[in-house]
């Protein structure tokens, strides 16, 4: 149908003309593939603006918003630390460019990518939150994904880096059910909803290949950047410990944590850094 893009644009303009939309997804994930009983969950926000979409943790948003409010009052508060997901993704509705902002330890990176997903629409239909949805499949990040989208919400977007279907993705999961997003609610605002920038971290902009190299280095030695920055110090018993001893302990703890973070959304990243 030749006029489909124009029709979607008209529908989208009407859908977003008066209010900014936030779509709330429950994100369920299994961080450690060797412990599938340990299922984590976080409410994620897909924030739709006229010129972009932003995907981030609702817990992180609430924490950073509270800190920003405190800063305006001259109060230096600490983040809650309860967020399980610290990364966020910005997508353009007009291009294939995606900006993935993430952390490696204390270092913050803005990773620019061009992603064009190849979707296969199926003849399967169902209902989610009373919306008629259609099934579609794709492959991304070393995983096979099944999505359910609705043309009733004419937004070609979805959680994380997923986009490009003729309607909003209401649910998507990989075939191992390690990562699942499902829409739980929609809220509107007359004002533009902006994720607060606290300016706590300097951001390094990299392309995807540069990020893979950074990730490989970090997972091999997560405390490399701390060398020379940790002084000798006393432990809780008053015993003096050298900087090298403290660093070894921190590194061991970090390596144990990373070993359990072996079930990434983009599982092919681990294959890339292992080669």
Q: Can you walk me through this structure?
A:
This protein has two domains: 4-189, outer membrane lipoprotein receptor (LolB), chain A (Clam), CATH 2.50.20; 208-274, no CATH class. With 275 residues, it is α+β, with helices and mostly antiparallel strands. Strands 7-8-9-10-11-1-2-3-4-5-6-12 form a twelve-stranded mixed β-sheet. A two-stranded antiparallel sheet has the order 13-14. It has five helices and 14 strands. It starts with a helix and ends with a helix. Helices cover 24% and strands 36% of the residues. It has helices spanning 4-16, 58-72, 208-220, 243-260, 268-274, and strands spanning 20-29, 40-48, 53-57, 88-91, 97-104, 107-114, 120-128, 131-140, 143-150, 168-174, 179-189, 203-207, 233-234, 240-241. The chain is elongated and about 65 Å long. α3 packs across α5.
Task: Describe the structure concisely for a colleague.
The protein has 275 residues and is α+β, with helices and mostly antiparallel strands. The chain has helices at residues 4-16, 58-72, 208-220, 243-260, 268-274; strands spanning 20-29, 40-48, 53-57, 88-91, 97-104, 107-114, 120-128, 131-140, 143-150, 168-174, 179-189, 203-207, 233-234, 240-241.
């Amino acid at each position: 149908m030749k006029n489909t893009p124009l029709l979607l644009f008209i529908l989208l303009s009407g859908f977003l003309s008066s209010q900014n939309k936030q779509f709330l997804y429950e994100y369920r994930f299994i961080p450690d593939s060797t412990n599938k009983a340990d299922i984590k969950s976080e409410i994620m926000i897909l924030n739709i603006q006229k010129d972009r979409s932003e995907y981030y943790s609702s817990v992180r948003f609430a924490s950073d918003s509270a800190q920003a409010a405190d800063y305006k009052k001259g109060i230096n508060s600490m983040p809650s630390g309860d967020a399980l997901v610290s990364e966020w993704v910005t997508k353009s509705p007009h291009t294939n460019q995606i900006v993935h902002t993430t952390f490696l330890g204390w270092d913050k990176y803005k990773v620019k990518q061009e992603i064009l997903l190849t979707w296969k629409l199926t003849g399967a239909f169902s209902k989610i939150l009373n919306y008629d949805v259609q099934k579609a499949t794709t492959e991304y990040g070393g995983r096979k994904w099944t999505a359910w989208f609705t043309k009733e919400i004419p937004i070609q977007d979805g959680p994380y880096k997923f986009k490009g279907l003729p309607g909003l993705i209401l649910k998507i999961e990989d075939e191992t059910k390690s990562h699942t997003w499902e829409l739980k609610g929609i809220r509107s605002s007359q004002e533009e909803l902006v994720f607060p920038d606290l300016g706590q971290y300097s951001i390094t902009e990299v392309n995807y290949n540069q990020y893979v190299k950074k990730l490989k280095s970090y997972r091999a030695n997560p405390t490399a950047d701390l060398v020379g920055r940790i002084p000798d110090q006393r432990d809780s018993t008053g015993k003096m410990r050298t900087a090298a001893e403290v660093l070894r302990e921190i590194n061991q703890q970090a390596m144990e944590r990373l070993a359990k973070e072996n079930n990434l959304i983009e599982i092919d990243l681990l294959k890339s850094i292992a080669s």
